[in-house]
Amino acid sequence: MLLSYRSGLYLFFGCRWVLLLMGLLIYTKSGSVTPGLLLAAVLFHTAYSLLYVFKMNRLAAITAASFDTGFGIYLLWLTGGLSSPFLIYCFTGLFMIKRFVTWRKYYPICLSYALLLPAIFALFSEGPALKYLLDRFDYSFVVLAYFSLISFVQYTLQGVRKQYRKLVMIYSSRFMARQPMKQGIVPYMEAMLKKVLDEREVILCIESARQSEKVQSWKHTYFTNYMKQNTPPRRQKMHAKLPSPTGELEAMYVQTLLDRSGKSYGWLLVKAEKNELSILHKIYIQFLLMRLETFHFSDEELLDAEEKAVATERNAIAQNIHDGITQELFFISIQLFQLKNALPAHAREEMLPYVTEIEKMVKESHRDIRQYIIELKNEKRKFNLHHAIEKLLQRITEHTDVQPVFEHIGWVSQEQVDIEGAIYHLVEEAANNVIKHAKAKHLHVTIEVTSVQWTIVIKDDGIGMKKVDVQQEGKFGLGGMESRIRALNGTIFFQSEEAAGTTVTAIIPRERGTAYV
């Protein structure tokens, strides 16, 4: 409470001095103020104020507050009872009792005091108690005003304390940088937002490149996919009715999450009716989203650093293999060739099959190691398929006029390596064809995964082809695409018209046991 601080005490006792002087002034006009009464009131209030300002222990403070209440009753008895001009002054003395009791106990104490005063003064009056109360009916208004005042103070203090705790929680989150990394940024920030928004349901839909690190719930994935397909452009904040996974419309406050470059990286959904969130709620949301953006920026920086470190290490390993084992195998193959040619005629028929077999095994090992080197230097086996394809498209279109657009719908926590490799190579080959032959301005790649299949759609707005024949020689590797997909029991379709672009659609079945979100 404010009376726990010295500034609050100064304000409180200053107001009580004003009430005391006003009571003395009013009583002077209606009756005579004896020097003894004036001296007693001023001395007592001065001593009482000084004792509190210079801090007393708890027992002394309780004793002083009790004595102040008793002195107030005595002052009222001397100056007219319930009609005394010091009535409000005496009631304000009850504020000091609040320092030692809870609000639940404070209200009965105030009510007992309000009932005790008329009972005491009616007892010493000459007439009946009921008549005494009726003659001083304005006392009930004073009591009502006092209870209204303390109720307002309680409500205000509770509101202030509640908002203060929220601000402290938001501020203290800046010192808890390690905790979000342990439990996950999204659950941590959702818990914080839920607390400051008075336990409303909060859903953070984050388009993270590192989805494999933290599997999102099915509800997060549902709303993330819905927002990708239905978010209106240039609307950062809005209220909307969104369909829940069960088909019911739910009122949501929606805010698009933007990084420091202005690019969207997700959405905040708060279950709330229009105008239900207060200004303070929205201010707290902005504070926490600033913290979330900091986490996101740090994560992106760490991701880039990790990618560079991994790429550097992989390239170093690939270079060491190339300079070491590959060169040794190459020299071995040369020596085997020389040995084969140097075999004498009488031993050639017997030894040649063995030498040829060794030479074949060396060539196969040489080819396999070269393939490992290629894969080490390739980005396809980095963190996850979506991120690898996004990097692939950026690399292929980097110094061209083609604008890549990549969209992925659904997500799996794990997939067979041969399926991921086939999808990656399909996109790589199709994108290279667009760059080399299509003369396109835009390249759209959409990858959708369900529990049943992968669907890959690669579309451009280039010059297209008059006729698509995958068997025709020189048709930009269409046959290779088809054979790669069919090897996985998939199907592939090519649709192209002259001056209308080309669309490649591939469908690859999945194993039902693989996890899907």
Automatic annotation (TrEMBL):
It comes from the Bacteria. It is an enzyme of class 2 (transferase). It comes from Paenibacillus planticolens. Residues 418-512 form the Histidine kinase/HSP90-like ATPase domain. The keyword Transferase applies. It catalyses: ATP + protein L-histidine = ADP + protein N-phospho-L-histidine. SUPFAM superfamilies: ATPase domain of HSP90 chaperone/DNA topoisomerase II/histidine kinase. Coiled coil: none annotated. Keywords: ATP-binding, Kinase, Membrane, Nucleotide-binding, Phosphoprotein, Transferase, Transmembrane, Transmembrane helix, Two-component regulatory system. The chain crosses the membrane at residues 6-27, 36-54, 74-97, 106-125, 137-157. Its EC number is 2.7.13.3. This is histidine kinase. InterPro entries: HATPase_C_sf, HATPase_dom, Sensor_HK_TwoCompSys, Sig_transdc_His_kin_sub3_dim/P.
